[in-house]
Amino acid sequence: MHVLVIGWLYVVVMISIVSDSVLKGVVRFVFLGVIPVGLWMWFTIQKRRRQMEAAKLEAAQAEREDTAR
Question: Which run of H or of E encompasses 18?
Fold first, then answer.
């Protein structure tokens, strides 16, 4: 998955470089590169946090069951 992001950012940088002006290049880089990759990273991090919290909760519950026996 990281290879796709790196490839996408490479394409976006190349598009930004051949833009007519610096401002257009920066805007294209931000809207085609930074925002989508940032959202992808945020969703991925949130998913991993939920999984880690669920694993901690499950481990704590299993520990309580072991000590109750």
Answer: none
Token pair, residue 63, equals 């520990």
CA 39/CA 45 separation, integer angstroms: 10
The answer for residues whose C-beta is within 8 angstroms of residue 28's C-beta and 6 or more apart is: 12, 15, 16, 19
Instruction: Count Cα neighbours of 40 within 13 Å in the Cβ-side half-sphere.
Output: 13
What confidence tens digit (pLDDT) does each residue in 13-67 have? 999 999 999 999 999 999 999 999 999 999 999 999 999 999 999 999 988 887 8
Show the DSSP H helices in the chain as ranges.
Answer: 2-17, 22-29, 35-68
Tokens 């989508």: give the residue: 36
